[in-house]
Amino acid sequence: MRPGSVLVTITATLFACQVTAKNVPSALKAFYNKARSGGDCTGADALQTGFYNTERSGGQTTYCTKYLPTGKGFYLKGPGSDLANMDIDCDGEQSSGDGRCKSSTDTQGQTRWGLRHPEKYGVGDLNANIHPYVVLGNEGSYCPTFDPRTVGVEPLSIVAVVCGDELVYGVWGDTNGDDNEHPMVGEASLALATACYGPSISGNSGHDEADVLYIAFAGKEAVPTGARWEADSYEAFEESITAQGDKLVAKSFGDKSTTASGSDPQHTTSSSNADNDSDNDDEGWKQNHKSGGWRNTIPRLCYITLIVLIALV
């Protein structure tokens, strides 16, 4: 391999390592634990109830605002300690990809929001293999339905996803239609699910456990200002929305210590809504998640790859 090619590969590897492995800030961890331990979402905290995490889950999942700052968005909350699962959406632009979306049985050629100005963005629709989008809202000839726009959440706005002991940023790119018997929730693009759980994910094989936290942020400030919609990889697109996502998380939860996985960050204590849970934050997190996970191996693999590449120069 020529030295120039090796240097390019090293740069790309460093870039991917930084983008794909992000620890969850301590205050967001505390919110996660609080949401799971706080029981059902009812009353004024529930924007709309009666949704299904799976076809047999009983319709007890809610668009919830419990513990969030007033008017700042919502998250999906199931009964008891449940949040939501992660089924796989392969809708949208069908070019590129490694074939894992081919197993999907309900793929459509467009997403709900797509990109309305292809001449501006250089791409006509979202691509499930590249864009980490989340499916939120319920439209169709069933009941109940829910439109996130009614509470200020904008199409294509940033969504924070806590999954597999990591934080990933996505965008609200699609809605749940009426192609199932019940109004369903808990779905994301193949790109986002792969970032969470690795390449074993496919079009018909997602993450079944109801331990995924999807937080949709309300307001114009959540609409990406520097998103690279024309990116040809998940890593490139994710990098383009990460800084703005970090700001949204810091503003909502008061913790700016979002760092790369594998480090030993010194999280700062803040006066956020989640402060009361900070003492038991790490212990609760360990109870709710399997230690490690495939993404926690990324830094080690990156370092090994870099050593090999440097040796080739």
Walk me through this protein's architecture.
The protein has 313 residues and is of the alpha+beta class. Helices cover 27% and strands 19% of the residues. The protein contains seven helices and nine strands. The chain has helices at 3-20, 26-37, 118-121, 190-197, 234-253, 281-288, 298-312; strands spanning 46-51, 61-64, 73-77, 84-89, 133-138, 158-163, 166-176, 187-189, 207-217. The model is unreliable at 1-19 and 259-310 (pLDDT under 50).
Topology:
Layout: H1 3-20, H2 26-37, E1 46-51, E2 61-64, E3 73-77, E4 84-89, H3 118-121, E5 133-138, E6 158-163, E7 166-176, E8 187-189, H4 190-197, E9 207-217, H5 234-253, H6 281-288, H7 298-312
Parallel strand pairs: 4-8, 5-7
Antiparallel strand pairs: 1-2, 2-3, 3-9, 4-9, 5-8, 6-7, 6-9
Subcellular location: Secreted
GO molecular function, one term: chitosanase activity
Enzyme class: hydrolase
